[in-house]
Amino acid sequence: MSVLRLTSPVPGVVRPLADVPDPVFAEQMVGPGVAVEPDRTGRQDVLAPCDGVVGALHPHAFALELDDGRAVLVHVGIDTVTLAGLGFDLHVERGRRVRAGDRVLSWSPVDVAAAGLSTVCPVIALQADAADLTSLVAHGAHVAAGHDLLGWAGP
């Protein structure tokens, strides 16, 4: 059995999904994972948490399809879809292969917070069994972008 390491897409403080102000994430409806409350900096890159092919791609979220059939979702802020892409810059196209640490998009957590929206960034192992995930960082710890967050046991 191989263990996939998922890294933090942004620098910030690790939070449990239960703290995310959206029931889809807090109740793990799309899968288990962890969230990162990003540092409040002006412009910030959001990095791929693992190697994969960009499947779904929106200004505020992306999903990576892994070679073994698994998928990972990174959602940048909560309800940020309401911004209609304003303040988000995409750096990849759908269908592109990326490696862990590649820049996928840029945004401003400061601007998102100023719009009255949560800046927390869930990292979700889509349709995974929570028992297959291992937290590699304690909740409340600060991580740099690219730092290990989760281990995901798989096929």
The biggest beta sheet is recorded as: 8 strands, antiparallel
Q: Mean of the pLDDT scores? A: 96
CATH class category label: Mainly Beta
Shape: globular
Find the count of extended strands (DSSP E, 2+ residues).
14
Helix content: under 10%
Please give the alpha-carbon distance between the first and last residues. 6 Å
Strand line-up of the largest beta sheet: 9-5-6-7-11-3-2-13
CATH superfamily annotation: Glucose Permease (Domain IIA)
Radius of gyration: 14 Å
> What percentage of the residues does DSSP assign to strands (E)?
35-45%
H-E order = EEHEEEEEEEEHEEEE
Question: Structural class, from secondary structure content?
Answer: mainly beta
| Tally of domains | 1
What's the tally of helices?
2
* CATH structural architecture: Distorted Sandwich
- At CATH level 3, the topology is Glucose Permease (Domain IIA)
Polypeptide structure, described:
The protein has one domain (2-131): Glucose Permease (Domain IIA) (Distorted Sandwich), CATH 2.70.70.10. The chain starts with a strand and ends with a strand. The chain has 155 residues and is mostly beta strands. The longest helix has 6 residues, at 109-114. The strands form 3 sheets. It has an 8-stranded antiparallel β-sheet with strand order 9-5-6-7-11-3-2-13, with no helix packed on it. A hairpin with a 5-residue loop joins strand 6 and strand 7 (71-75). 6% of the residues lie in helices and 41% in strands. It is found in: Cytoplasm. Its main location: cytoplasm. Keywords: Kinase, Phosphotransferase system, Sugar transport, Transferase, Transport.
